[in-house]
């Protein structure tokens, strides 16, 4: 079970952290704070640039902590809150991700919540404390 949790934590956490770097640094094809902030402004999340940085930092911190299994409930909460906002503001009109729906966001929420509820496992920093 510990190895399975490690795989889930690493893949989900590092993927979420990479999404955050798109918003904050423009890495991996992202638009950075200005581009993401413009989009945020257009959907009513204001001030856009500040909120893009906040969302990106939540994804980076939440993702890296989740991957490491450090303060896993807090890390999962950061991921879940970010995904809920994405669903409410952008993806709520459709379920399937092929039509810009919330399918992917829901999977991330379920995985983060599941790990938070059962614990990060033996191969985590939480296990050391």
TrEMBL record:
Record flagged with keyword Aminoacyl-tRNA synthetase: no
Protein name: DoxX family membrane protein
Keyword Membrane assigned: yes
Family named by the database record: Belongs to the DoxX family.
Keywords recorded for this protein, A-Z: Cell membrane, Membrane, Transmembrane, Transmembrane helix
GO cellular component: plasma membrane
Its membrane topology: Multi-pass membrane protein
PANTHER family noted in UniProt: OXIDOREDUCTASE CATD-RELATED (PTHR33452), OXIDOREDUCTASE MHQP-RELATED (PTHR33452:SF10)
Compartmental location: Cell membrane
Ranges that cross the membrane: 74-92, 104-125
Lineage: Bacteria, Bacillati, Bacillota, Bacilli, Bacillales
């Amino acid at each position: 079970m510990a190895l399975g949790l490690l795989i889930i934590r690493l893949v989900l956490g590092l993927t979420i952290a990479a999404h955050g770097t798109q918003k904050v640094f423009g890495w991996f094809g992202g638009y950075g704070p200005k581009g993401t902030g413009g989009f945020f402004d257009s959907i009513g999340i204001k001030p856009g640039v500040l909120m893009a940085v906040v969302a990106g930092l939540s994804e980076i911190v939440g993702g890296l902590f989740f991957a490491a299994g450090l303060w896993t409930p807090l890390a999962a909460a950061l991921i879940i809150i970010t995904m809920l906002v994405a669903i409410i503001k952008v993806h709520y009109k459709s379920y399937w991700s092929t039509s810009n729906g919330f399918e992917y966001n829901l999977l991330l929420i379920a995985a983060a919540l599941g790990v938070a509820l059962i614990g990060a496992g033996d191969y985590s920093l939480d296990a050391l404390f």
